[in-house]
Amino acid sequence: FPSGAVEQTGAVMAALAASAQPLSALDVALTFRQGRKAEPQIRATLAAMARLGFLAIHDSGQRFSTLRAA
Known about the structure:
Radius of gyration: 11 Å
Structural class: alpha+beta
Strand order of the largest sheet: 1-2
Largest sheet: 2 strands, antiparallel
Number of strands: 2
Strand content: 5-15%
Order of helices and strands: HHHEE
Number of helices: 3
Distance between the termini: 31 Å
C-alpha cells in the first residue's frame, strides 16, 4: 500500500473502479501486499472520500463503490 496520501487515494480508487461489486475496507486491503495491516488507512481514506461525495455508500457504511454514470 502506498505511503503518500495522494497515492493511497489513487490506489483505493483504482481498486474500487476495478470491482463490479461494492468493497469493504478489508476487501480493498487484501488486494495489497500488506493486507490487513493497511486496513485502518484504507478505512480512513474510504470514509474521507465518501464524506466528500466521491463514493457510493452501501450496507450502512460497511462497503463502498465508485459513482458510475448512468
